Amino acid sequence: MYRNILLAIDVEDEEEAERALREGCRLLSEGGSLHLATVFDPGGASFFPHVAADASEDIEQRARDSLSALAEKHLAFNSGATLHVLAGSPGEKLVALGASIEADLILLVSRGAGAHWPLRRATVECVAVSAPCAVLVLPAPVKEPQEGGES
Questions:
Q1: Per-residue model confidence (pLDDT) at position 48
Q2: pLDDT (tens digit, 9 = 90+) per residue, 13-44?
Q3: CB 82 within 8 A of CB 33
Q4: What is the 3-state secondary structure (H, E, C) of 72-129?
Q5: Is residue 44 within 8 Å of 91, Cβ to Cβ?
Q6: Residue 139 and residue 57: Cα distance in Å, rounded?
Q7: Contact 107, 23 (CB under 8 A)
Q8: For residue 35, what are the β-bridge partners?
Q9: Residue 22 near residue 74 (C-beta atoms within 8 A)
Q10: Is residue 100 packed enough to be buried (19+ CB in 10 Å), middle (13-18) or exposed (0-12)?
């Protein structure tokens, strides 16, 4: 059991988030602290910096709202999880947050296939190599082939 767990949450994937939350709660010791973190890209290059800044604030607020909604939906009423919304490189930000909150476990979900896998793999590798604590990477769920469909 762990006393201070950091869960990396992809707010765009509720199934993955629920899985991470369930496992994090299972591993959390009584009286422990649960930290939920999501990391967003603050934006790219723009000819109009004020537009990028506004877009970044909107992205941050949407991420914060989504993370809050996931916590409310999937955690016990009085869990008291701390929410963190970070801008920048996911691996670096998660490692730095893990150090600053003195996490004793960082939990991520690995998604083996999909459009974001190269970024995800880089994040998992960065956290696994650089984290100041234990790292648990949940494997991608195995999807059962549909009956009558191609496998």
A1: 45
A2: 888 899 999 999 999 999 999 999 999 887 65
A3: yes
A4: HHHCCCCCCCEEEEEECCHHHHHHHHHHHCCCCEEEEECCCCCCCHHHHHHHHHHHHH
A5: no
A6: 32
A7: yes
A8: 6, 82
A9: yes
A10: exposed
- Which tokens belong to 12? 């765009």
Helix (H, G, I), strand (E, B) or coil at 11: coil
The pair of structure tokens assigned to 98 is 């893990």
Q: What is the pTM of this model?
A: 0.83
Tokens 């009558």: give the residue: 148
44-50: long-range contacts, CB 8 A cutoff, minimum separation 24: none
Q: Which strand (E) or helix (H) includes residue 3?
A: strand 2-8
What end-to-end distance do the CA atoms of the chain give, in Å? 38
Residue with tokens 């967003």: 40
If you ran DSSP here, which 8-state letter would residue 109 be given?
Answer: E
Place of tokens 């003195």: 102
User: How many beta carbons lie within 10 A of that of residue 105, not counting itself?
Assistant: 21
